[in-house]
Specification:
By secondary structure, the chain is mainly beta. Helices cover 11% and strands 50% of the residues. The longest helix is centred in the first third of the chain and has 20 residues.
Length: 604
């Protein structure tokens, strides 16, 4: 504390002295008392300290006039030169022979651009080169950069500027040391990785009306952040069909699983008040609305308040009110603040309208609130009020609560988490019942109060359970709903991962149970295999399907660094779903970081 206060006093004393020294002289003061301006040292040549991948570090920074965007050239045989000049009315260097960019007899081997600058050093990117830049090379300023530098120094010595010193925390001396270390561009800037491939699948439907079909499509998985240095990001997964030999009224399990993925192009700029996103995505401030195909557009009204609009096709088959023709549109306002290292809160409220084939189906109002304290506990609440349209001969339904979720999660230990939940649904959910056995619909299996525990035990074993009582007015008494699961992240030394799950449920829309088992294994990051089997039995008033058995097998092989091949099959046996499916994907993987690593290895 004494050291920090001493630093503050020294800086304040220096600022006051500087302000006095730069104060204009009174009108009566003699003109001959002005002190001559000290000569300015203009550096035009900088030694390359070292090279790290695509980043070139040079010995010279803010103190020698370098700034972000400054261009440098590396020439064979270039030597270090320093020009000293006195600022004059002509703003020219005193020794133009040394500051001129005389390139006669020298061969340019690289062009650099300063992308990050500290007090005594800077980081450059290579714009072009005829050979790799190595430590010891000399980078020089071209003539146009020298003229800008001289003009800048001349102006700074003929004008007085106020000195402002302000800080609220931290040791100024420590901060000066940190400022002397150049910072290269963040690794997430221009990070582009992902894969693109062509998909081919065949399906053979069994039963009394046996038929076959083939489909070709495109698969894209992307994780591209700060595209081309901007604040646009592309993240997610997408699979689309190109051709099909026949149409199927009933989608397969793989088709439904693919429709649960999201891919979006989003704009997030900390220096801009505008936010935007498009694709198959969630509204970032209200994920309880489920994903939709469309977009959102908003503006930060302040550091804590964001308002905007959203709209699109609500095509998520796991949604409570799923309909392939449903569209939604509305507006929202979010208030958030705090820090994830301490207390953080977020509150969103808005209104919108749901439409079926452009006809108003149900207007709605929603709210979603979250408060977190580190990783110790969190509270989440989502509420949806609407007024659904009813058909002829059906008793009208008034405005009211359509669904409600509330969760309190406590983590007394990094390996133990406990949650307490309450859920309510006014209407019978219309999600696709084929997804019951996948675990994506577990949140709908409990109505009323429930509690769950997740424990990460030794030996890479994770245990989890959810127990609750479903209480519906039509039931003579409440019924118990249970879900148990265990995960072996690594069985002994085999590297095999196993996950087993069992659930028994009795809700207003269905009753029954399901069992699933998943086994996966990776082999030296070049080959992966996964097998999943399940059995589900249920009785539901919204579906004629009373259950099914399924088996999925999937394998992925990497052919070198860039190419991959995925192949697998699905077997489903049930009253409505009874088919065999085989699919194969061949594609290309990309990651621009590989190029940087290769360049770094070559220079070493």
């Amino acid at each position: 504390m004494v050291h920090r206060m001493t630093s503050v006093l020294l800086l304040l004393t220096w600022s006051m002295q500087l302000g006095v020294a730069q104060s204009p002289q009174p009108a009566s003061a003699p003109q001959d008392t002005a002190q001559p301006t000290a000569p300015i040292e203009v550096h035009t040549t900088f030694r390359v300290r070292y090279v790290n991948g695509a980043n070139v570090y040079v010995e010279g920074g803010r103190s020698t006039g370098l700034a972000e965007g400054t261009r440098l050239v590396v020439r064979a045989g270039a030597a270090s030169t320093t020009a000293t000049s006195a600022a004059s009315e002509s703003h020219q260097p005193a020794n133009p022979e040394k500051t001129s960019d005389d390139a006669s007899g020298l061969i340019t081997i690289a062009e650099l651009k300063v992308v990050a600058v500290a007090e005594t050093s800077a980081v450059c990117e290579v714009l072009s080169s005829t050979r790799p830049v190595v430590a010891g090379d000399m980078a020089t300023l071209p003539q146009e950069e020298i003229e800008k530098l001289v003009e800048k120094h001349a102006l700074s010595n003929t004008r007085n500027y106020p000195a402002v010193v302000s800080f609220t925390e931290g040791d100024p001396m420590d901060e000066d040391v940190r400022d002397a270390i150049p910072r290269p561009p963040l690794p997430e800037v221009n990070r582009a990785q992902g894969r693109i491939g062509f998909d081919f699948s065949t399906i053979h439907n069994r039963g009394p009306f046996s038929s076959s079909s083939t489909t070709t499509g495109v698969v894209l998985r992307a994780d591209i952040t700060r595209i081309n240095g901007t604040h646009w990001n592309l993240n997610g997964y997408w699979r689309g069909g190109l051709t099909s030999t026949s149409s199927r009224n009933q989608p397969t399990l793989q088709d439904l699983l693919n429709r649960t993925y999201t891919i979006s192009l989003t704009y997030q700029n900390p220096d801009s008040r505008w936010v935007a996103g498009m694709g198959r995505l969630y509204l970032p401030w209200a994920s309880s609305l489920n994903s939709f195909d469309g977009g959102y557009f908003g503006r930060r009204m302040s550091d804590r308040v964001t308002a905007g609009v959203f709209g699109g096709l609500a095509s998520d088959p796991t949604a409570l009110s799923y309909d392939p023709n449903r569209r939604i549109a509305g507006g929202f306002t979010n208030i958030s603040g705090g820090s994830y290292d301490d207390v953080h809160y977020s509150s969103t409220f808005g209104a919108g309208v749901g439409m079926l084939k452009w006809s108003v189906d149900r207007p709605f109002v929603f709210t979603e609130n979250t408060i977190d304290y580190k990783r110790v506990f969190s509270v989440y609440e989502a509420l949806l009020l609407d007024r659904p349209r009813t058909g002829p001969g059906v008793t009208p339904v008034g405005a009211g609560v359509a669904s409600s979720f509330a969760t309190l999660r406590v983590q007394p230990h990094p390996r133990i988490s406990i949650d307490f939940n309450h859920s309510y649904f006014r209407d019978v959910p219309t999600y696709d019942p084929q997804l019951v056995g996948t675990g994506l619909l577990d949140k709908y299996l409990f109505q009323g109060f429930s509690a769950g525990v997740r424990v990460e035990a030794p030996a890479h074993i994770t245990l989890y359970t959810e127990i609750g009582r479903s209480n519906v007015s039509s039931d003579p008494k409440a019924s118990w709903n249970t879900m148990y699961g265990i995960t072996f992240n690594r069985i002994w030394k085999t590297g095999i991962r196993l996950d087993a799950r069992y659930s028994n449920f009795n809700s207003p829309f269905a009753q029954g149970d399901y069992r699933s088992l998943s086994v996966s294994r990776s082999f030296k990051d070049s080959f992966q295999v996964q097998v999943q089997a399940g059995l589900q039995k249920f009785i539901s008033p919204v579906s004629k399907d009373n259950g099914s058995r399924f088996l999925n097998a999937y394998g992925e092989c990497f052919l070198g660094r860039h190419y991959f091949i995925d192949t697998g099959f699905t077997i489903t046996r049930g009253a409505l779903q009874n088919y065999n499916q085989v699919y194969t994907t061949f594609g290309y993987r990309f990651d621009n970081r590989w190029k940087r690593e290769a360049a770094s290895a070559t220079q070493k």
